[in-house]
Specification:
Layout (H helix, E strand, L loop, with lengths): L3 E10 L2 E11 L4 E5 L6 H9 L6 E6 L2 E2 L10 E4 L11 H11 L4 H14 L15 H13 L5 E5 L7 H18 L2 E6 L2 H7 L2 E6 L2 E6 L1 H6 L4 H7 L4
Parallel strand pairs: 3-8, 3-9, 6-7, 7-8
Antiparallel strand pairs: 1-2, 1-4, 4-5, 9-10
Helix pairs in contact: 2-3, 2-4, 3-4
Length: about 240
């Protein structure tokens, strides 16, 4: 069984089926993107994996453990959102250490992990700043450090770059990939940007109206699109 194993996942809001029989296995350390237009169900799948949204049916397993009915805080998942969701009244260091504090870790252990995380994101000097004193890109680095500090098994990134301008978006996506590989952490990255998905993923899931239309490497998705929708969406057919 894959490290992250999703079977027959479904989500219905009222009469709207927004996720339909979604199946996916992700190997340990793999970086997988969910790619598709706005409204196709990417975030809903991600939120069900995180435990923020209850599935209508289906199962989710992480490292062989059935987490389908576990609350979010027991799933060993770290998440980064589109807009910087940092606590504005806490310093960078306290933001990064927040999850560890809630988990009851000791002060010395928290301080050590926070400084490790600040090194990892390349901002060793900024621990005492407040979020408003940072650029957008720096804030997203801190959000990443905060998600990684409790050493989650899976990292979920929900359009973490979309609020940033183009130049920073490219440098930060390379940074995210470097950190992800350094830690070997299993990652799902949600994006509606074809070029972004093609350039950083091990594999891509192209989604369309709640369905995984195609799962493949960037090469496969680009060169051998399985459906007309995939061909049109990744731009090989215009
Ligand atoms: P994406 O992330 O691909 O943009 P979403 O997963 O956010 O798509 O949304 C998929 C569909 O589900 C959309 O039609 C959206 O309007 C709908 N949806 C998402 N959340 C809710 C909700 N809480 N209540 C009703 N409909 C929702």
């Amino acid at each position: 069984m894959a490290f992250l194993d999703i079977q027959h996942l479904e989500k219905t809001f009222g009469s709207l089926r927004v996720v339909k029989d979604f199946n996916l296995g992700i190997e340990k350390g793999e970086f997988v993107s969910f790619l598709g237009p706005s409204g196709c169900g990417k975030t809903t799948v991600l939120r069900m994996v995180a435990g923020f949204e209850t599935q209508t049916s289906g199962t989710i397993r992480i490292d062989g453990r059935d987490v389908t009915d576990l609350p979010a805080n027991r799933r060993k998942i770290g998440m980064v959102f589109q807009a910087y969701a940092l606590f504005p009244n806490l310093t960078v260091a306290d933001n990064i250490g927040f999850g560890l504090k809630v988990a009851g870790e000791g002060k010395a252990q928290i301080a050590r992990r926070v400084s490790e995380m600040l090194e990892l994101i390349g901002l060793p000097q900024l621990g005492e700043r407040y979020p408003f004193q940072l650029s957008g890109g720096q804030q997203q680095r801190v959000a990443l450090a905060r998600a990684l500090a409790p050493r989650p098994q899976v990292l979920l990134l929900d359009e973490p770059l979309s609020a940033l301008d183009a130049k920073i978006r490219i440098s930060l996506r390379e940074e995210i990939r470097r950190i992800q590989q350094e830690l070997g952490i299993t990652t799902i990255f949600v994006t509606h940007d074809q070029e972004e998905a093609l350039s950083i993923s091990d594999r891509i899931v192209v989604m369309h109206q709640g369905i995984a239309d195609q799962v493949g490497t960037p090469f496969e998705i680009y060169n051998r699109p399985a459906t007309r929708f995939v061909a049109e969406f990744v731009g090989t057919l215009n």
